[in-house]
Amino acid sequence: MPTWHTDRVVLVGDSAWCLTLYSGMGASTGLAGADLLGTSLLRNPDNLPRALREWEQRLRPFISTQQTAGRAEGLTMFVPQNRRDLAVRRLTRTLTGNPVGRRAMRTLVAGKFKAKSIDIAAP
Hints:
Number of strands: 2
Strand content: under 5%
């Protein structure tokens, strides 16, 4: 959607940005979007258009990142597209099944979860 608000009507969560199961961020982004909306309204109590514009400008890049990651990375873990994806999925399951493998996996994927851990409502 080109915008998630019109006048005083605001779409939040799946009604606005509709992340897929593959992103693993549906509920989190719905809550984060609502939190950021509240924060933006508090920061601009007398200027609703500005509050909504700032809310969307801050939130849209975060949501776009999650949408892209869901299509690019999440899909192949849930629905392997080829033998390589299936092998990676099996290896991941095997590694996370023991303590040494879990530590190794945490190290390998630490950077991938950084974008999912951002507090978008923080100043």
